[in-house]
Write a structure and sequence with these properties.
Layout (H helix, E strand, L loop, with lengths): L1 H24 L16 E11 L3 E12 L2 H21 L7 E15 L4 E17 L5 H12 L3 E9 L4 H26 L2 E16 L2 E3 L16 E14 L1
Antiparallel strand pairs: 1-8, 2-4, 2-5, 3-4, 5-7, 6-8
Length: about 250
């Protein structure tokens, strides 16, 4: 009985092989897949860094008002915000560069020991905007003007710095990244005893602009607020594959 099953299995395997051979014989082209084709050449990464001086300051600012009723809190917040907006535009900030980022009306509660539950004691209205300052040297004076206009309702969360047109710096960073990649590839080729060919694959990674950030509490300072934008560092990465020449 065992011999019978061995014979049957043997015949099935023979037929399968013949069938596959027949399929290949009827095909006009026969291709092969090289699973290692993506691992040929010299793979390197390059990094380019450029230091730039920011020309734009972005303020995150607004007002917060709290009162016994929503209407009263809204009225206080609206009045304060109108003064803040006027201070911005009077100091050269264009309306197109002011954008609302957050608006909320929330309950203010406290724990009532007698009732053993939270009770509403008032309402808080918050209105926050971002203001882009293109005359970066005026940043300190604008902060002072805003703080004075909004009074105790003023909130200034943070300041960030950026570049209006980073394109020229990206171009410079790319050049440095490619030069860095080529230098690495040439060294690897020399160490490996091979001749370096042309790039067969180039990929640009994420551009990383490192922007310094400041935080300022809301309060009108008696002296002018000093602001220093410092410098920004822009980093760009590339991945390059070089061919190996025979």
């Amino acid at each position: 009985m065992k011999k019978y099953w061995l014979v049957v299995i043997g015949l099935v395997l023979v037929l399968a092989v013949v069938g596959l051979a027949g399929c290949n014989a009827g095909s006009t082209t026969v291709g092969t897949v090289d699973l290692n084709s993506q691992q040929t050449g010299i793979w390197v990464s390059g990094e380019g860094k450029v230091t730039v001086t920011p020309d734009i300051a972005t303020l995150s600012l607004g007002v917060t008002a709290q009162a016994a009723s929503v209407a009263e809190a809204q009225s206080q917040a609206a009045e304060a915000m109108n003064k803040v907006m006027a201070a911005l535009t009077d100091n050269g900030v264009a309306k197109k560069d002011i954008q609302t980022q957050h608006f909320s009306i929330t309950q203010v509660t406290r724990w009532d020991e007698g009732k053993q539950q939270e009770v509403v004691v008032g309402y808080r209205v918050t209105n926050m905007v971002t203001a882009k300052i293109r005359e970066i040297d005026k940043t300190g004076s604008i902060i002072d003007a805003v703080a004075a206009a909004g009074g105790d309702f003023t909130r200034i969360n943070n300041i960030s710095f950026s570049v209006d047109d980073p394109s020229p710096y990206y171009k410079e960073a790319r050049q440095k990244a490619m030069a860095d990649a080529e230098a690495k590839a040439e060294q690897l080729a020399e160490l490996g005893g091979v001749k370096l060919g042309k790039p067969t694959y180039i990929s640009e990674g994420t551009i990383y602009p490192v922007y310094p950030t400041m935080y300022k509490e809301a309060a009108a300072a008696p002296a002018p607020t000093p602001i220093s934008p410092g410098e920004l560092e822009l980093t760009l990465n590339v991945q390059v594959v070089y061919a190996i020449l025979d």
